[in-house]
Amino acid sequence: MRILFVTSNRVGDAVLSTGLLDHLLKTYPAANFTVACGPAAAELFFRMPRCEQVIAFEKRRFGRHWLGLWAKLVGRVWDLVVDNRGSALGYCLAARARAGLRHRDGPKIAEIGAILGLDPPPLPVVWTAPADDAKAATLLAPGAPVIALAPTANWSGKIWPAERFAALFRALATTTLPGARAAVFAGPGAAERALAAPLLAQLPDAIDLCGRLTLYEAAACLARAALFIGNDSGLMHLAAAAGAPTLGLFGPTSAAIYAPAGRRAAAVIAPAPRMDALAVAHVHDAARSLLAGEIVA
Length: 297
Hints:
By secondary structure, the protein is of the alpha/beta class. It has helices at 11-27, 64-73, 108-113, 130-139, 162-174, 190-202, 215-222, 234-242, 255-258, 280-291; strands at residues 2-6, 32-37, 51-56, 77-78, 80-83, 94-95, 98-100, 146-150, 181-186, 207-210, 227-231, 246-250, 265-269. A 6-stranded parallel β-sheet has the order 10-9-8-11-12-13, with helices on both faces. Strands 3-2-1-5-7 form a 5-stranded parallel β-sheet, with no helix packed on it. The protein has a two-stranded parallel ribbon with strand order 4-6.
């Protein structure tokens, strides 16, 4: 059996779709999979069981990326095409069955689960290899708890000020997680490094993991964190999928749609649609509630 799974260009949305993919892996234990996604998200699937191929395709003007993807897929007969993008691609391929996204209000993860009629939707997962876990154990050696901080995002309006991240870490390391170490995460590239630099300057003893990890290595590291705090970003969703207690920070974007999805995940929302409206004390209280297993508001 051959299954084609089409998912997002963006890391965060692609992470949210991994629960649906994991459901398919369990439902069809003899099937092989091809995953089509954006280049930034491709690494999410490199460790996935029974994945024959990951096709990374760049978004192009006027939807021309769909034509290029179709050309790579048209020569095969698919037993099932699952399209998380809501495109017409599945209807242009030889397929015995098809399922596609239909846009609806509410959490993004519920919209994704509805593709296969799953309610509640399956939670996101991560796939790692022993080598990734070994590298994570070296970078984040056992000992004092690690607080993972993700101070970057894909636009400036989603970024909580670096000095507040630093103040929050110091407060948590003094009270809630005594003696904790900070690990700062960011994506690849000079722009991400520049966004993380102010926090690294304020926490000179932090473990610098900015731009130094693949997505699957980052997932292995995040799984070892005692707590993750970060802006609304792909790293936030990856942390929740990896099982870290995850607190996402929201201001201008909608937590009702994009809150982190995980067994220990919550969103803290600024009282105004600006990240600088979110006080350190508010986030500190939310982090303590999350670690205590309480509902975070």
